[in-house]
Amino acid sequence: GNADVDYVRQLPPHKAFHIIRDPRDIVISAYYSHRYSHATDGWPELTQYRELLKSMTEEEGLLEEIRFRSRSFKHLESWDFDNPDIHEIRFEEFVKADAKTLIGAFDFLGLLDNSDYNFGKRTKGIYREFAAFLRANTPVSIPRSLLGDTMSVPDFFAITWRNRFAAKSRGRKEDTANVRSHYRKGQSGEWSDVFTSEHKDLFKSLYPGLVPRLGYEDDDNW
Coil, helix or strand for 86? Predict the structure, then answer.
């Protein structure tokens, strides 16, 4: 899915970051996720849709996924990219330099403490790690207010390192796909190897101008 600008406009004053991705790659990623790996908890409709995809060839399934993306692509089409309170990030830039990109986003949100690192901050970082462990493994929850509103840059790097693609995929390289994993491949541009002329024609007919609007092509002649 994608953020709905009409919903965002109803929120109280805030700052946020918004990640966009080449919608053609979204189709590829969503197809494999919906067919194999996305959890169905809280989304019972996915079970029926998954069975539909399994009954189709990959080429047919991708055509169906292009149609299925109408709601999220409508949100992309109508998104306000000029909102000064929302930091825009391209997914393609993020996967190339995730820590650098996220530092820019978190700094924009005012969540990073850029002052000198000291023993007190290290202790606070350990406390935050312990609180995260408790939340994940026990019914005990430490109020977030006790953790403070910012984190040090070293602690931030530690979190991004633990959540890198290789860690999430259990050591698999980014150019090695596992279609049954939610962390399938970790690379962009796969649509160009997968889309047939039929996929391209259907995409352009349903979402004219979307790809160039997002800056991924100069026009719809791709």
Answer: strand
Domain-by-domain residue ranges, the chain? 5-109+182-213
Q: How far apart are CA 8 and CA 192, in angstroms?
A: 33
Looking at residue 126, its pLDDT comes to 77
CA distances from 117 to 22, 126, 137, 144, 151 (A): 38, 13, 29, 21, 10
pLDDT of residue 182: 47
Residues of the chain short of pLDDT 50, as ranges, are 181-184
What's the confidence (pLDDT) of residue 183?
46
Q: For residue 161, give every residue at least 6 positions away whose Cβ sits within 8 Å of its Cβ, in sequence order, or none.
A: 99, 167
Task: List the structure tokens of 214.
Answer: 């997002």
Contact of 113 with 151, CB cutoff 8 Å: yes
Pull the structure tokens for residue 219. Answer: 């026009």
Rounded to whole angstroms, what are the CA distances from 222 to 23, 40, 212, 218, 219? 13, 34, 10, 9, 7
What is the crossing angle of helices 153-162 and 119-137, to 10°? 30
> How far apart (Å, rounded) are the C-alpha atoms in residues 31 and 21?
15
pLDDT in tens, 113-169: 877 777 777 777 777 778 777 877 888 877 767 667 888 888 888 777 777 767 666
Closest CA relative to residue 209, chosen from 73, 109, 85, 110: 73
- pTM of the predicted model as reported, rounded to 2 decimal places: 0.75
Closest among 204, 116, 193, 98 to 153, alpha carbons compared = 116
Contact status, residue 187 vs residue 175, Cβ threshold 8 Å: yes
